[in-house]
Amino acid sequence: MRTKTATERLEDLLETPAKTEDGYLDLLGAVRQAGPPTGLTQRLMRTTLLPRVYERYWRPALGRALKGPLGPSMAGEIKLATKLLDLKPGDTALDVACGTGRFTRAFGAAVGPGGLAIGLDGARTMLAKAVAEGGPTSVAYLRADAVHLPLKASTVDGICCFAALHMFAEPETALDSFARVLRPGGRIVLLTSARRGWQPARVAESVGGILSGQRMFDRGEIAASLRARGFAGITERYAGVTQIVAGRLS
Questions:
Q1: What domains can you pick out in the chain, each with its CATH number?
Q2: Which of 27, 60, 205, 231 could form a disulfide with 247, with the two C-beta atoms 3.0–4.6 Å apart?
């Protein structure tokens, strides 16, 4: 009996059929993006230039500016995310807002050929670059709404969403969706904004968020949102104006 490809196994997890498009599955079709636009940063993700420089220049430089000198590098983020997700061979991992797929490929290596690593993004240009980069046979890509995940309930062992939740128009709805598709005991790890408590910095960071179209969460806010959705064992790491929050669904 022929073994299913990663893309075929992804199709089995979807609530509705998807069209195959340039090496990935597409549920958005002619829609330029899912949900309302939130600002300049989100619009840049759909350009043809940004995917070319995203992994090597844009994401590391922007991350360093936001995390400060003591925050992890992008390679450090990938290592930490993989560790916090505690991925095992045969697991299914979902990389939400995967961009050009660097995290997705790492998760694909962690789950092995018997597992599945799904890279989900709304930008055609990002997914085209991700597909072109290749990677493990356990990797499949999906163009879909990151807020209203199109996966069946309780089908995923781990969810990663790095540098994206603060750009969603409905972040709380996205967290509901993440909890829905996770299996009991499944793990989540998020990297997002973290506004500091000192009032002058808080005001400046809030203004910066408004100008760039990014929501500035308070420290502790994401952890509280996860607890309200049944997550336990929550950890928080702060660097600059960012936070990495992880937990396990009870």
A1: 6-249 (3.40.50.150)
A2: 231
